Amino acid sequence: MRQNSFNIVGLAVALLCVIVFATIAVAVSEANRRTGPRIFQQSTQLRGIHQSLVTYANSNENWFPGIDELGEDARITVEQRFQILIEEDYFTPEYAISPSETEDVTEWDAHEDGKDPITAKNYSFAMLQIPSEGGRREEWSQTVNSQAIVISDRNTGTQAMPSSIHTKPGEQWRGSVLWNDNHAGYEQEDVFETKYGGGLNPSDKLFEAEGEFDALMIHSGN
Question: Which residues pair with 128 in a beta bridge?
Answer without folding.
Answer: 217
